[in-house]
Amino acid sequence: MDMRPIGVFDSGLGGLTAVRSLRQILPEENLIYFGDTARVPYGGRARETLLKYARQDVRFLRSFDLKAILVACGTVSTTSLSTLRSENELPIVGVVEPSCQRALTVTKNKRVGIIATLASIRSGAYEAALRRMDPEVEVISRSCPLFVPLVENGRIEPGDVVIETVAREYLEPMRDEGIDTLILGCTHYPLLTKIISHVMGPDVTLVSAGEESAFELKRLLKAEGLRADESRQGEAEFYVSDRVEDFERIASLFLQEDLRHTARRIDIDQY
Amino acid sequence: MDMRPIGVFDSGLGGLTAVRSLRQILPEENLIYFGDTARVPYGGRARETLLKYARQDVRFLRSFDLKAILVACGTVSTTSLSTLRSENELPIVGVVEPSCQRALTVTKNKRVGIIATLASIRSGAYEAALRRMDPEVEVISRSCPLFVPLVENGRIEPGDVVIETVAREYLEPMRDEGIDTLILGCTHYPLLTKIISHVMGPDVTLVSAGEESAFELKRLLKAEGLRADESRQGEAEFYVSDRVEDFERIASLFLQEDLRHTARRIDIDQY
User: Fold this and answer.
1) Which residue range(s) make up the domain with A144?
2) Are residues B206 and B118 in the same domain?
3) Cα–Cα distance list, B182 to A121, A170, B145, B169, B223 (Å)
4) Structural domain includes residue A1
């Protein structure tokens, strides 16, 4: 048994959907979450900028004695993960490989869709991972740059013409290409599950990158004998790099729990 | 005559709409533009973070020998302008006071609306400036957080149900309050002039903060004998803090000219 916490980070608060999955899948683990809200969004930034930010995020988290890190940021997972792994000896799980593995298990017609931020799609990392695991898979990818601001403004409910119009524009061409599996490659997107399911129809299976990463982390902790005492209830601490005033409202949105969390603010430039 | 350039900065590329106004109003002046694209958006950030960023932006611009600075960023103008002025001896024009002055000149019923980013509205700076200039004015203010991402994704044309729906939600309540003047307090918003005019109707005058700042700068340069030779054609240089690849496409959108500009990238953390 290992009672040390798991570190989780994302560019902003979207990674809290991964925290939600971790609390369901590994309820006994302690979690330390860092959201780089002063520098969000990472989505459109240059590769060197992303690596610099990711290194700082990891250095901050490692100021705690951690047993593992979940990179809940799709953009960092697709651009910087191998470098972070080579520089840190503890297990680091990203959001790309677990969801690709799951998508290849689920698909029947080997036509897999992937939606994510512009930087993640540009990096080609999902496509490369899918092809490496199965050279015969056909991948249809699409960046959905308006999904993040729409989610953050609470436009997630069926019946909202704004999110429904944008979702149809992004997703109908993918549906018409005949995919049977769609990877949600950004932590914000699970909040749009109802909207996305409605456009894609019942024959397309959605795979949430954050959830699959939580399952992967569970396998990894078990294999390495790092799990916490399963009879206990884990706790979570939250850190951000910008104003904490809105944290409670937004955290409730992403965690889908009506809880009263507080976040502490840190200066990420110090790391 | 003073041939030194004018510095202009914004959190991202939205400030290029102010460059467009400057090129129309002061075509003989040389301009140096800096867009802090690595840290955009400033809109939701904490006051200390904004001041730190603004100081770095000014330090970079002042690595050139400038005669004046236009702060094209509404958020910086509303939170950090007096500090920047106290720390720099050259004239610095923001986007708040000139547009407030203009709105008070234009309004007949003394009911003035202001739309801007969340941070600008929260700061109360437009409201405070308007009331200081005319204690009897009634101010109706509203943050429009989805306008910036929608503009940046090119959703600016009449007939687009997404931008039209969002604009109606933000603006109809303001129209129903009976304002006759509306300040566009964010550099992105002039690109939505057609959409906003359509919702507000012909009886509401729109005041563009960037354009009024260009007029104010013209008055100031004239008063202090700092204008360039009016027979010449000024030039513009562009700097950004993140990837330059998309600059040409986005610059064409904001400048509303089909020109081939290149931007150079600088590391703003060095300033």
Assistant:
1) 97-209
2) yes
3) 39, 33, 17, 16, 29
4) no
Strand (E) positions, A151-217? Answer: 181-184, 205-208
CA distance A179 to A112: 5
* Same-domain status, A161 and A121: yes
Q: What are the chain A neighbours of B146 within 8 Å (beta carbons)?
A: 149-150, 153, 155
Asked if B66 and B107 sit in the same domain, the reply is: no
- Identify the residue among A37, A39, A56, A146 best suited for mutation to test binding to B, counting B beta carbons within 10 A and taking the highest: A146
Residue B249 has which token pair? 């496409």
Q: Do B238 and B254 fall into the same domain?
A: yes
Count how many domains chain B has.
Answer: 2
Contact call for B39 and A44, based on CB within 8 A = no
CATH of the domain at A187: 3.40.50.1860
Same domain? For B136 and B184 the reply is yes
pLDDT tens-place values along chain B, 271 residues long: 899 999 999 998 889 999 999 999 999 999 999 999 888 888 767 888 899 999 999 999 999 999 999 999 988 998 899 999 999 999 999 999 999 999 999 999 999 999 998 878 988 889 999 999 999 999 999 999 999 999 989 999 999 999 999 999 999 999 999 999 999 998 899 999 999 999 999 999 999 999 999 999 999 999 999 999 988 899 999 999 988 877 877 888 888 776 666 789 999 989 9
Helix (H) or strand (E) holding B264: strand B264-265
Which segments of chain A are extended strands (E)? 6-10, 31-35, 68-71, 92-93, 111-116, 138-143, 181-184, 205-208, 236-240, 264-265
A225 and A196, same domain (yes or no): no
Residue A96 near residue A185 (C-beta atoms within 8 A): yes
Q: B181, B210, B239: which is the final residue of a domain? A: B210
Does residue B1 fall inside a structural domain? no
Instruction: Point out the residue among A49, A145, A162 whose CB comes nearest to the CB of B166.
Output: A162
- CB < 8 Å to A162, chain B: 161-162, 165-166
Dihedral sign of CA atoms A131, A134, A136, A139 in order: negative
